[in-house]
UniProtKB/TrEMBL annotation:
It comes from Vitreoscilla stercoraria. Homodimer. The record marks H166, E215 as: Could be important to modulate the pK values of the two catalytic cysteine residues. This is Diaminopimelate epimerase. PROSITE patterns: DAP_EPIMERASE. The gene is dapF.
Amino acid sequence: MNTLKFTKMHGLGNDFLVVDATKEPISWTAANIQAWANRHTGVGFDQLLVIEPSSNERCDFKYRIFNADGSEVEQCGNGARCFAKYVTEHGLTDKKSVMVETMRGIIVLHVLEDGQITVDMGKPHFAPEEIPYVPSSPTDHDAMAHVLIVGTDTVTISCVNMGNPHAVLLVDDIRKAPVSVLGEAIESHAQFPQKVNVGFAEIVSRDEINLRVFERGVGETQACGTGACAAAVAGIRHGLLNQNVLVNLPGGTLTIQWQEGESVLMTGPAAEVYSGVLTY
Ligand SMILES: N[C@@H](CCC[C@H](N)C(=O)O)C(=O)O
């Protein structure tokens, strides 16, 4: 019988099982993750976050992320803020700015005086092969307006890679957006060979959007940090938003800052809920 010490955390309701594997490696299977993530028979969470030592001398830690379905993924923005809170409050570092290795490059986490955390999420990428996205035709080359046939519907999507893949749809009213049906159909669409996170964004003003995200490997979540970055970047590229954007998600609000050619900065809270031990 194995035991696993964990801490339950969340960023605006996007919830996590955080595991410290800095002292000794921990092993599990995808089936273990699915069982722990189950909201009726397990702890319940959207992602498992694992803190490991980094072999990159520039980095303080390595950050690994697993979706509730057991798949390992490249990036998680809300998780990055929880990661920063965990390593600074559990004595793993005394730094207030932490460099972290992820599957897709390095991100930098800054713990602010008021307890909020700003994450330098790196630069967004747009080329189809960087998403990855398979264009519908030779003329389907505008990253902000890819044309995708989904069943009997044709939808226009903006594709942004924030370390992980995102498709963003602009909608008039997120309350009426078909997030679960269309989100699921686009998530597993054959033109996204590694699947995709799907955001439904409503422009409120040049400084504010409302957003719901159907996350790859999870379903709709209360908040998605990389989804907020992708939607803000798409809105800015469309010329609809200024460089500082409030992103209202079902679980709360994030601030996203971006200008063309630069890294995306995401600021928001992180919360610890409780700690426990799992046996498996
Ligand atoms: N909740 C996240 C994103 C987690 C990973 C995502 N589901 C994927 O598969 O890429 C966030 O806050 O960014």
